Amino acid sequence: MGKMFKGCLTGIGALVLVVIIIMIIVMATGGDGEESSGDSSNNEGSSEESNASEDGDSEEETYGTGEEVQVGEVTYVINGMETASSAGIEGLEEEASGIYIVLDVEVTNNGNEAITMGSSYIKLLNGDNTYEADDFNSELFVEEINPDSTATGDVVFDVNEDVAEAEGLQAQVQEGAFGSNSAKVNLNE
Fold this sequence. Notes:
The structure is a single chain. This protein is of the alpha+beta class. The protein folds into two domains: about 1-30; about 50-185, Immunoglobulin-like (Sandwich), CATH 2.60.40. It is built from two helices and twelve strands, in the order αββββββββββαββ. The protein has helices at about 1-30, 160-165; strands at about 50, 60-65, 70, 75-85, 95-110, 115, 120-125, 130, 145, 150-160, 170-175, 180-185. The strands form three sheets. A six-stranded mixed β-sheet has the order 1-2-12-11-7-8, with no helix packed on it. The protein has a four-stranded antiparallel β-sheet with strand order 3-4-5-10. A two-stranded antiparallel ribbon has the order 6-9. Strand 4 and strand 5 (about 95-110) form a beta hairpin.
């Protein structure tokens, strides 16, 4: 029984050693999977402020309309916001269920490979509520953007009038479908 107990301790000791090595590697490489935004050269003259996210684990930069927003290898500029009762391709306009919030957006791909914009790249935030874009009526979705290229177009959200008139509306912009890198843009400035 003593040999079995000693072998068990050796096995547990090896497991603990492996876990410690993994933890050291994770801490040495940053560990949280998010890129550091500590480069002060990206903050030149903007009115950014850090706000803690809802879960409190990370901070997300907040910008204003007209400011360049660097999110990973993608740069966004939301030039403005307006409302409309219909949106879409001329001649094929669609009436909103409520009212459309239309964002005038520029997207620049700073990466080495083409990206395809998806509906999850830009979301509308009102308090705790998150609104998805209307893909059919938005000009930028399913838009392929090559490296070092910029695409400009409207991103449309079908919301009720109370949301369209709400103070504190924000757009959340992110890199990729899963949004590991994101930032917020205040729309009511």
